[in-house]
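Q: What would this complex look like in 3D?
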Amino acid sequence: MRTIDIFGSAISNTFRSKTRTILTILAIFVGAFTLTLTSGLGTGINAYIDDTVTSIGASDVMTVTKTQGGATGVAADGPVEYNPDAIASEQPGAPGSTVVALSPADLETLAGIEGVVDVEPTRSISVDYIQAGDGRKYVIGVGNLIAGQTIPLDAGAEPDDGTADLQLVLPVSFVEPMGLGDADSAIGQSVTIAITDAERMQHLIDATVVGVAEEGLASPAGASLVPNTALSDELFDTQNVGVPADQAERYAQASVFFDPAATDADISALKDRLADEGFTASTVADQLGMFKTVIDGIVLVLNAFAIIALLAASFGIVNTLFMSVQERTREIGLMKAMGMGNGRVFSLFSIEAAFIGFLGSAIGVVIAMVAGSAISSVLSGSLLADLPGLTLIAFDPIAIVVIVLIVMAIAFLAGTLPAARAARADPVESLRYE
Amino acid sequence: MTTPIISVRDVHKSYGGGQNRFDALKGVTFDIHKGESIAIVGKSGSGKSTLMHVIALLDAPTSGVVELEGVDTTALRGGRLNRTRNKTFGFVFQQFFLTGNSSVLENVILPLKIAGVGRAERKSRGLAALEQLELADKAKNKALNLSGGQKQRTVIARALVNSPRIIFADEPTGNLDTVTGAIVEDILFDLNRENGITLIVVTHDEDLAARCDRRLYIRDGLLVEDSAAVAA
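A: Here is my prediction, written as structure tokens for the whole assembly.
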């Protein structure tokens, strides 16, 4: 029997007992549907985290702080010696916690460490308010955009670091209250930033809005404006008017650039070298790795449930095919009497099983994709409206194909038992009718 | 004398072992020549069906030899055995073993499908076989909807489609009324006479047996009478 004929016969046999086949397909459908949705959930959330990672920081950057001699406050296990370089941390942490500032000498040390391509201190700039024309004044932070970071933009472009013009990107939530109309009309408008220097003198700096950032969970902008280099320099210099030169160059943290092609092993080796020099380094991936681990764990558990549903369905396949073998005993006997080999009989039934699996999974996957897209669009408009950019359930074509293949493999395995029985059937025994 | 198409030498067949051992055939020897029509006659349980299964290579004898055109068939295994059966034999059973939901044509071309014949050739040969049995107009009907005689003619078309040299007919008229049965018998004997196909009929019906060239009477697993031997 030709292979193509075996496939043809197997497929047409599938529809011979329609009700039974449909019920079996439904059981598989439930499993495949669940598996597609849970894996879609994992894909969606992880894709969101990945997007967030690229907007928080480039992959070839790590944040470096100076390792502190001892903890203060609750975590302290004894009195800590005074360090004149300790400054209040701008990083998240308990209020009042301090970090040791990085001095220009530290930056040079960092630059000298093997594997470090570039060092860029993170300037902390705090402005008093931002105002458009004679509109209301609003408090705003100043974000930093380092190379490789991207801002999810609603309108306009990212700030141009190559120009001497003072440019900034404004968070979308500021646009309307400041009286700039909508995101599109804000582009090109001039805003005024007030900043106070060390001598308690307030300066006003005018800059142009070149872009409007959309809100994200971990957008580098957040409730902050993102200046271009020219504006950043201007603000930093203004802020440090009156600060003694040796005090101006104090940074809470710095960004260390390394080879983008570095492997995980290279990165951890670099961290070790930094630790030897007394610095603590962490990449963005480190900071978000935890999230992903937790989400992967949850998705794994959900997938396990879906697999259990599939296993239950596979017993349905075994049952269906056993009944089918039982019913077709005579036919199998006849085919064998006519010279059909055992292997071919086995293929006929196991292909039928795989085909049932294919039908169930294909229908399950398609309906899951429709349902998943509907669910995530409804949720993103209501429950998850605070997390813009999140597609709760996303579908990865490779994952979909893998799911279909897995279900077919399970169905095939389930089919081997009845198929083996059919293959073993003795033609004489099956054709006896006395 | 030419080599017999089938030669059965001292064939024994037993089922089970020990106390439950049952000897279905207890040493049967005879030859069948090309173009003969043979009736294997016996009561239910006489061993006639077992004998047919052994000759048709569906079952291996416990001891003894079945030669097909002078070739010892005990050496045939797996794929070669299957191919030999497919090419040499056609089967007509009392119960039709048709797939009810498939078309008449689909049923008829099953042996060709198993033989691996291409789609177009399958169809033309299937239609030719149906033509021969005056069933061409039913080719697209479901086998389920045929009358008993039409079903048996479909089965004969199926036995015929792969141009076999031997047709086995196991109680071919057992399920048919007298008139239809007679028609089916005519068809089988016409095939035997006109196409030179060797016909082996297994039956307990004396009238059918009487129409064959030669009758082999089986009782309790032994060949008790061979009409050819008597005549000779």
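A: To summarize the key features: The first strand of chain B starts at residue 6 and ends at 15. The two ends of chain B are 15 Å apart (CA to CA).
Q: Very helpful, thank you.
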